[in-house]
Amino acid sequence: MTQLGRLILFPFLLALTPYPALPQGEDGKKTSGQHHRRHKTLRKTSDALKIQPAEPLRHPDVAYLHPPVNASGVSPHTTMAIRFSSVHFNKKKATLLALRDGIRVEGSVTGRHHRAKVNVADDRRTIVLESRAPFSLGERVAVTIDGSQGPHPNHAPIPGFEWSFTIRHEAPPDPARSISAFSSIYGNATLRAQQAGQDGLLDGRTTWAPSKEWGAPGRRVTKSPSNYRTLRKHMPPTIEVLGPVRKGATAGGHIFTESMADAEHPYGSVLMILTEEGEPVWVQREPKNTGFANWSTRDLKVLDNGMLSVHRPSNAGFTLMDKTYKQRRYVRIKGGYRTNSHDLAVRAEDGHALVMGEDIRKGVHGTIIQEQDANGHVVFEWNSWNHLPNQFRDSVFQKRNGEWDHMHPNTLSWHPDGNIILSLRHLSEIIKISRKTGEVMWIMGGKSNQFDFVNDHGFSMQHDARMPAPNKITLFDNGNLRTPRESRAVEYVVDEARKKVTKVWEHKHDPPMFGMACGNVQTLPNSNKVISWGGFFFSHPKNAPFYTEVTRSGEQLMEMRFVNSFQLQSYRSFRHDWHGAVPHFPPTLLLEDGHLFYSWNGDTTTSKWNVFANDVRIASHLRTKFEHNTPVRPDNKCVKYFVVALDKAGQRLRTSNIVVSQACKKGDTPKTKATENT
Fold it and tell me: Which stretch is the leader sequence (predicted)?
């Protein structure tokens, strides 16, 4: 792998590596020399990269400003935004022209940025400015809003306001590549194993072994089909399913996951929607990776707005699809930053998206959060360089190979009160951020912890921390920094006012499971929990489970694992309702070995198949699995075959492609109902 490739994927490799906070002496204690080197490194970093607290807004009419007043280190591609406390705007062209005429953007080097693009966000209070050319490195930029223009027939008068900020001095990394999660050391398998040995990962312990349940009498173990002919190009890995233990015990719906392999293997990640029997519903095999190139395709899930989303490194962002599998939206970080691939949230009521990015300065990875409205306008931006004064001290990671992913954000969501929850894995911290001011409202976990933990020791290098209710937080505790290393899913009741966290539920695998990275926990509508156990390839046992569903009382209802010759794993796994999906492409039909083989990849609406030969129905049957087949007799005449998908009401959904018998001459395609109605 090239050095460029290693640097590009530094954060994802680093994310999955449980390095101890400091190098250890032979007795397990940190030596004074190691302490000295650690503090010296921190001093150098602090001297080179100052945390600059954002100046508070002092104008009574201004509710939000970006970049902050006198901010430094700003991206040359930044957008600018100002939100007024009481002024509302319409989006008529005349209004936008009037706003543009009353706003000036001027750089100390680039001069006046004439005709900067002006937009009104969907809250009708936020003006978003976008220069048509980047700013120069190191220049001072002033934004002036002319309040002397007075009342205008197309919008309310706006207060006069002026602020300035400074563009960063070093060129930012290429924003066309997303931050996908791994350290440059992991471009080489030998170095990987050596480093893992130094960190105590490969110490001979068994982190997972198949439970006796997998072979116990009366327990149903099934394997997913692996020979569907209509899925040859997208064949998923074989999946082994334990359970479910009884009918109706699970929450229902479909299972969403992906298979990922170590980047040493030229393997195309497979996106999958499955039934709980392991039967495919929708399968999409991605292009094979070359090392880490195109490697981190992941996080397949249904968003709160009902859209299906997935991160693809090939387009450096998140693709959102509807139930026809058409792309309806594309989300990536704005302002010239790199998109972070770990998480995306989209709100149901207004389509606003929360997305993360990386502001890399001198090889150190700062964290960007943006809230974008449904039209992609940035209406809120938070930058760790303006907050978290203890971020270097709190990190358990040291700078490696010229890069330092000292925080590693991996989960982002809205708090029920409208503020923002951010998980920082390398700090073992969860923070709450004010949506209005950007200030850090509290820190849970890690060295800057502000909470008392009741009935629990706290969490370590966590994933998937969320607050589904005002007083509840769930997370997957990877447990990297605990001895012995063991992962768990955990739920806490949170008293934010009294700064108290009480454990009310946890689940550990039997036998014990250690997922050194990745993983998640999801609460289902019937209170069951889905747990994905994470892992990381070379330390990850073959055939370890990627999906477990348990009751709140801890009863294991079902489990899934990949059956493979090398270590496949998933990033996260979910269960969602995906009924009513009707793909925009037609069903697939093949004629092979005297049989018609047919399926409709992604369909969850078809109830019945009708099979036709030259417009005569020759078979009709219920749809009971992904692929069906119907035998056809040899015929010396030209026969055109097609199938029609019907819904529960017997209404036609879509007609397949046409296949023909061997007796048909090339170009012989007489009209059929299929050609008329497809």
Answer: 1-23
The structural domain count of the chain equals: 2
CATH number at residue 158: 2.60.40.1220
Instruction: Tell me the C-alpha distance between 292 and 69, whole Å.
Output: 39
Percentage with pLDDT > 70 across the chain: 81
In the structure encoding, which two tokens stand for residue 567, read together? 């270590």
Per-residue tokens: 337: 């930053």
Structural domain ending residue among the three candidates 166, 184, 205? 166
Give the pLDDT confidence score for residue 168 in this predicted structure: 94
Query: At 423, phi and psi to the nearest 5?
Result: -100, 130
Question: Does residue 118 lie within any of the structural domains?
Answer: yes
Residue 461, phi-psi category: left (phi > 0), alpha (psi -120 to 50), beta (remainder)? left
CA distance 662 to 202: 59
Question: Nearest CA to 136 among 89, 76, 84?
Answer: 76
Amino acid symbol at 90 = N
User: Looking at the whole model, is its pTM more than 0.90?
Assistant: no
For residue 228, with 0-12 CB atoms within 10 Å meaning exposed, 13-18 middle and 19 or more buried, which class applies? buried
The tens digit of pLDDT for each residue in 56-89 reads 788 888 999 999 999 999 999 999 999 988 888 8
Let me know if residue 27 belongs to a domain.
Answer: no
**Contact status, residue 412 vs residue 343, Cβ threshold 8 Å:** yes
Give Cβ neighbours of residue 373 (< 8 Å, ≥ 6 apart): 121, 122, 123, 350, 351, 352, 379
CA atoms of 407 and 381, how far apart (whole Å)? 18
CATH number of the domain enclosing 662: 2.60.40.10
Tell which residue, 341, 307, 345, 347, has the closest CA to residue 327.
307
* Domain termination residue (choose one: 114, 146, 166): 166
User: pLDDT tens digits, residue range 198-210?
Assistant: 333 333 333 444 5
Report d(CA 108, CA 140) in Å as an integer.
5
Least confident of 75-89, 213-227, 471-485: 213-227
Q: If DSSP codes are grouped into helix, strand and coil, which group holds residue 37?
A: helix
